[in-house]
Design goal:
Elements lengths: L6 E8 L3 E8 L6 E3 L2 E8 L8 E8 L11 E6 L27 E2 L4 H4 L5 E10 L3 E6 L9 E7 L4 E8 L4 E5 L10
Antiparallel strand pairs: 1-2, 2-3, 4-8, 4-10, 5-7, 5-9, 6-8, 9-12, 10-11
Bound molecules: calcium ion.
């Protein structure tokens, strides 16, 4: 975790988005944004060789990755390759088998899904949260997992990038970091 130095608390309000609290560091970066949203997703920030495979996705409201967000209302995804039940991505089983296994999510393998930003997986929760960390159980085959992803939330109008995530093959935890997201739509 980066030292954010001495912080200045800024509360910015707009009619559409409500109030967003921003801890702005006097050391230039990072800027940690607190935002409450029901809808969160992770999105690939590098090209994918095949389908992105995720067997479990968890989100946490703290940067120690202890306070897990529960009460999933709906699974959000760019594409769902096979007939796996949507619950497989939040059933507590850290499936890393990949290859469109029945107990994993597999995104699309067409070019539009393999390009940067072309695949995403997330949740709509029953209540709003501020996500700071994710646990992801990805496939182990290098063409089915990504190292660089973004964490995004829906603000009522559009998806907004909160920051970047650095993931690993199989199971990994990642705390959101600011910047370093080169989103190509
Ligand atoms: Ca699972």
């Amino acid at each position: 975790m980066k030292n954010i130095g001495q912080n200045i608390l800024i509360v910015a309000c707009t009619g559409v988005l409500g109030c967003v609290k921003v801890n702005q560091s006097q050391e230039s970066t990072p800027i940690i944004t607190e935002v409450d949203s029901k809808q969160w997703r992770i999105r690939n920030q590098e090209g994918i060789g095949d389908h992105w495979n995720i067997g479990e996705l968890e989100m946490f409201t703290d940067r120690s990755c202890q306070e897990k967000v529960g009460a999933v209302q709906e699974v959000l995804y760019s594409y769902w390759y096979d007939d796996s039940p949507k619950q497989v991505v939040y059933d507590g089983e850290c499936n890393v088998e990949g290859h469109a296994n029945p107990n994993t999510w597999a995104g699309g393998d067409q070019e539009e899904h393999k390009r940067v930003g072309g695949s995403w997986l997330g949740f709509q929760f029953e209540s709003t949260h501020n996500v700071e960390c994710v646990r992801v159980c990805q496939g182990m085959d290098r063409i089915q997992w990504v190292e660089n992803a973004s964490l995004e939330y829906f603000n009522g109008k559009e998806w907004v990038v909160k920051g970047s995530l650095r993931l690993q093959a199989g199971e990994s935890y990642a705390v959101v970091e600011q910047g370093a997201v080169a989103l190509t739509k």
